[in-house]
Amino acid sequence: MTAEPIVVAEGLHKRFGDTRALAGLDLDVPAGTVCGVLGPNGAGKTTLIRVLATLSDPDEGRARIAGHDVTRDADRVRGLIGLAGQHAAVDEKLTGRGNLRMFGRLYHLSRRDAHRRADELLERFGLAEAGDRQVQGYSGGMRRRLDLITSLILRPRVLFLDEPTTGLDPRSRNEIWDSIRALVADGTTVLLTTQYLDEADRLADDIAVVDHGRVIATGTPDRLKSSIGDRLDVVVEDPGMTTAAAGVLARLAGAEPARGEDPRRLSVPLLRGPVRLVDVVRELDRAGAAAADVGLRRPTLDEVFLRLTGGPAAPPPDTGMEPAAASEKETAR
Amino acid sequence: MTAPAHPAPPAVPPPPATLAGRLRWTAADGLTLVGREFSRLRQEPGELVGQLVFPAIMVVLFGYVFGSAIKVPGGGDYREYLMPGLFAMVTFTALMGVTMRIATDASRGVMDRFRSMPMARSAVPFGQVGADVPTALLAMLIMALIGLLVGWQPHRGALPTAEAFALLLLMRYALCWVGCYVGLVVKNEQTADQLVPLVFPVAMLSNSFVPTGGMPAWLQSIADWNPVSALTAACRDLFGNPGAPTGDLAWPIAHPATAVLLWSVGLLIVFVPLSVRTFQRKGR
C-alpha cells in the first residue's frame, strides 16, 4: 500500500469539562472501505464523528480527510464529506423533495441540477412516491433514509454515519443497510458508528473498537473473533457432574468455563488454541461427566466486544491480540 | 434497493476565493433559507392562520373587553389608542418565532448539517433571520386590515404611515437577531418553548395597552425605557392616533422615533456579530 488512507486521525484529544471524550484516538480508514466504529455509550464515537465532520475542533491531535486538515482546511473537507446521524436532520415541514432541493441549492448546485438530483435520489432509494409528502408524515425508516440521501447530494468521498439505524425496526434497518452497501459499491468510503454488533459484522470491512476515547482494537470482524479464540460449548448429561466437567474444560481450554442458565451447559473460550472434540469427549468420560453435546464455534462479535470493553481487565497474553497501533498498519492494506 | 448505476452527481463549484464571490455565496445561501420559509408556508398555510388569530384575539380582548373600561388620556377612541400598541407587541413577540425555528433546527440536527456543508458560514444566521421578513410583511398587512375593520386608521398621510411601518419592520428585524442569538444558545426546542411566556410580560410592561402614568414610579420608568413603549409611542405619533403623552416625559417617550432607531441599531450592533460568532463557534 502506498496511498494515504482517506481518513486519518492522529492522537485526538477532546475534553468536555471533566469528561475526556477522546483520549488520544488514532484511526486510519483506507479509501473505499467501510469502517465500523464500535463502542459502548459514552466511548467517544459521536465526538469522533463530530471532529472528523468539522463540527468540533479537537483539543489536541490532528485529523485529515483526503489529505485536508479538518481544522485548518474545514471548507475543503466539507465539500468532500456527507454526514447522517442519529437525527433525521431534515425539515419536517417540507416535503422530501423540497428538502433535497433546498439542500442541493445550499450545496450550490444550480436550480436545475438541484431538482434533477432530488429526483434521481428519491427514485434510486425508493422514496419517489413519498417525495411529495411532508416529512412529518414519514415513518422512522423513511426519515432516516431521507436523511441518508440528503448527505449524498454531492456524492461524498467519505460518508459519516452516526448510529444510522438506532431505533429502527428490523425491516428499516435492512433497507438502510442495503442503501449503505449500494454506496460502497459506488466507491464511497463509509465510517459508521454503531452499538449493534451485527450491524458492524454485516457492513464493516474493518472494525475499530473504541472505549474511553481510544481505539482499543482494530481488525476485520474475523480477525477480532479469532483474537479471542473459538469457543467450546458442552452440555453434560448429568447436572450433578457439571462441576467435574468444568474442571476438565478449564484444564483443556485454559480458562474458567461460563455457566449458562441451564445448569448442564458450559461454555469456554479456547485460550490455548484449538482442541480436538474427540479429546474433549474422552476426557469428560474419564472424569465421569459424559457429554450430551459438544460443539466448537466461533465467538460472536458480542463476546469479542464484552471481552474487550467490559470483560477481564487484561486479556491473557497468548490470545493473538495485537496492540491497536500495530494492527492499524495491517488494516490499511 | 437494487437500482440502476449511480448517475454521475453534478459538478460542484469550488468555494470562491474572492470577497465578492464569498458575498455572492452568502447572499445565495441566505436567500435559499428565506425561500425555505415560503415552501413551508405553501405546505402549511394553516400556520399563517395561527399567526393571525393571535392579534385578532388581542384586538377583541383589549379593544372590546378591557377597552370598555379604559379611558384614553387626552380623550379619543381606545381602539385607535390600542392598535399601535398591538403593532408593537406583535413586532416584539416575533423574536420567539426565530428562536423556535433555530432551536428546532438545532435539536433536529439540521444546524449540524448546515455546519457540515460547504455553505457560506454567516448565511445561516442571516437566512434564519431573513426568513422572518415574509411573515413580518404579511402579519403587518393583516394587522392593518384588522385595525381598519375595528375603526383604527392612520390620520397623517402616506409618508408618516410608511415611516411607522418602516420603524416596525426595522425593530422587528433587530429583535429577530436577539431571537436568533437566544435560539443558538438554547439549542433545544423544549427550552425555547419555555421561554415563550416570558416575552409577554416584557411586551406588556409598556404603554401598549394602558398609559404608564398610573403605574408606580419605579415601574413607570421601566415601562418608559422599554423599547416596546418607544415603538408604540412612535407609531401613535406617526399614525396620528390618540394617547400622545404629556407632562414630564422620559427621553425615549419624548423622542420615540429616534429611540426606536437607536434601539434597533444598538441591538443589531450587538447581536449580529454575536449570533454569527456563536453559530461559527465549534465546541460540543
- Major sheet description of chain B: none
Mean pLDDT of chain A: 84
Characterize the overall form of chain A: elongated
Residues in helices of chain A, as a percent range: 25-40%
Using CB atoms under 8 Å apart, which protein chain pair has the greatest interface?
A: A-B, 53 and 37 residues
Count of individual domains of chain B: 1
Number of strands of chain B: 0
Tally of helical runs of chain A: 12
What structural class do you assign from the helix and strand content of chain B?
A: mainly alpha
- Which spans of chain A have pLDDT < 50 for at least 5 consecutive residues? 311-333
Number of strands of chain A: 14
Q: Which term fits the overall shape of chain B?
A: elongated
Measured on Cα atoms, how large is the radius of gyration of chain B?
21 Å
Q: How are helices and strands ordered from N to C of chain B?
A: HHHHHHHHHHHH
Helix content of chain B: over 70%
Indicate the proportion of strand residues of chain B: under 5%
Largest β sheet strand count, sense and barrel closure of chain A? 6 strands, mixed
**Average pLDDT metric of chain B:** 86
Query: In terms of structural class, how would the helical and strand content of chain A be classed?
Result: alpha/beta
Oligomer: heterodimer
Pfam families (chain A): ABC_tran (PF00005)
Protein name (chain A): ATP-binding cassette domain-containing protein
Subcellular location (chain A): Cell membrane
GO molecular function, one term (chain A): ATP binding
